[in-house]
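Cross-check.
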Amino acid sequence: MAWKVEFKKETFRFLTRQDKETQERIRSSLKLLLEYLGKGIFPFREMDIRRLKGKRKGFMRLRIGKVRVILKIDVENKTIRIYTIDYRGNVY
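Predicted model, tokenized:
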């Protein structure tokens, strides 16, 4: 079974409202994350992924320039759930 990405409605809307360059950077980063996970590698250092603390414990943050992607990785179901995509000042 291959890895898949699930978006919340609001996150997909944010993605479609961005300029083409930003959209492509986000999509290529997510594709790269899928490639790493498909090989069984968790790319924390390579892709600047951090575990979040506090009330967002259990979530991870992927940094793509000024954009932050808040996600959860479900290894058992091979699913990446994207909860929030926004600029740094708005996401936290």
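The chain has a mean pLDDT of 94. The chain has three helices and five strands. Passed to J.P. for a second look.
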